[in-house]
Design goal:
By secondary structure, this protein is mainly alpha-helical. The chain folds into 2 domains: 3-92, Cyclin A, domain 1 (Orthogonal Bundle), CATH 1.10.472; 95-188, Cyclin-like (Cyclin A, domain 1, Orthogonal Bundle). It is 69% helix and 0% strand. The protein has 12 helices and no strands. The chain has helices spanning 3-15, 19-35, 43-58, 65-72, 76-90, 94-97, 100-109, 117-129, 137-149, 158-165, 169-179, 185-188. The longest helix has 17 residues, at 19-35. This is TFIIB domain-containing protein.
């Protein structure tokens, strides 16, 4: 094992990361190294940034930056700088969040029929076109799933929706309020 992956494994062990976090962090770590977006060879900083990214964005574990700094012994400035590189490399844009895979995972997690996925996709696309999505892409998708689920045999509550999406109920509700402003929402629900 090379020095880079040794640093990653040590950091994963320090954080006692569960296997899904380990897998995703390793994948992101490899992407950053392959694309050579990092100008320095501080692999411990990169490893901590990848773990922090995965825990806060992929698995909604809400690890505080201060906890990452304390566990890893890395300064806030270095960690934030590397975190930005990781974000840029992964490029979690609205398009990836609104992808059919993400929408499918959310619908499957709620035991919703696959027939509502095209409706959800259309609502999300209309939201993006009107500029209502903003930075809360996950919230918009969750709200779109909530709206579409209301026309199924087993409508889901906002609480169920936000739990599966890994969001607070307040964020999902704010996104729902934005989506209710869509001019053609009723036509999409037919």
């Amino acid at each position: 094992m090379d020095a880079a992956h040794t640093s990653l494994q040590m950091m994963l062990n320090m954080f006692n990361a569960p296997q899904p976090v380990r897998d995703r962090a390793s994948n992101i770590f490899d992407q950053v190294i392959e694309r050579k977006t990092l100008r320095h060879k501080h692999y411990d900083v990169l490893a901590a940034a990848c773990i922090y990214y995965v825990q806060t964005n992929g698995f909604e574990l809400l690890t505080a930056l201060n906890n990452v700094m304390a566990t890893s012994g890395i300064s806030k400035k270095k960690l934030e700088k590397c975190f930005k590189v990781v974000q840029h490399t992964v490029n979690t844009s609205f398009e990836s969040i609104s992808s059919p895979e993400y929408i499918g995972r959310l619908c499957t997690g709620l035991d919703l029929p696959q027939t509502i996925q095209p409706v959800v996709s259309q609502i999300v696309m209309n939201t993006a076109e009107l500029g209502l999505a903003g930075d809360a892409a996950k919230s918009v998708v969750a709200a779109a799933v909530y709206i579409a689920s209301q026309n199924t045999e087993t409508p889901k509550t906002m609480y169920e929706n936000s739990e599966v999406a890994g969001l607070s109920q307040a964020k999902a509700m704010q996104a729902y309020e934005q989506l209710s402003l869509l001019p053609n929402l009723a036509a999409l629900m037919l």
